[in-house]
Amino acid sequence: MPQLKYLPNVSTLQLDRGKCNGCGICLQVCPHAVFVFEAKKAAITDRDACMECGACAGNCPQGALSVRAGVGCAYAIILARLRGTEPDCGCGDSQTCC
Ligand code: SF4
Ligand code: SF4
């Protein structure tokens, strides 16, 4: 899948690297490869690729991540209305998302 981008500089994703223990869960669950490892801790490589699904924050055992989930879906719905297509935020869950 091509790397999707959302509105620039609006993602609410925040990472407190001081709390990160380097478990790597956020790298595993993020569908848009927003994170990389730097010096044995997670780092945000492209904040604008975040669709605010909340998977990283919901699975981080250290509470190092926060994001206001759902904004990516709202954007997908607005874009779909404009285009006359079905909404797709990119998470792959067409049953419960958007
Ligand atoms: S899930 Fe949390 S603790 Fe684990 S690497 Fe990511 S930010 Fe760090
Ligand atoms: S909210 Fe979702 S898309 Fe954004 S960084 Fe976390 S897992 Fe990735």
Q: Could you characterize what this model shows?
A:
- By secondary structure, this protein is of the alpha+beta class.
- It has one domain (14-83): Alpha-Beta Plaits.
- 23% of the residues lie in helices and 12% in strands.
- The chain has a two-stranded antiparallel sheet. Strands 2-3 form a two-stranded antiparallel sheet.
- A hairpin with a 2-residue loop joins strand 2 (35-38) and strand 3 (41-44).
- The chain is elongated and about 45 Å long.
- The model has no long low-confidence stretch (mean pLDDT 83).
Q: Summary?
A:
23% of the residues lie in helices and 12% in strands. It contains three helices and four strands; from the N terminus they run βαββαβα.
Give me the side-by-side strand order of the main sheet.
1-4
Instruction: Tell me the number of strands.
Output: 4
Q: Tell me the number of helical segments per DSSP (H or I, 4 or more residues long).
A: 3
For the record, give the distance between the C-alpha atoms at the N and C termini, rounded to a whole number: 19 Å
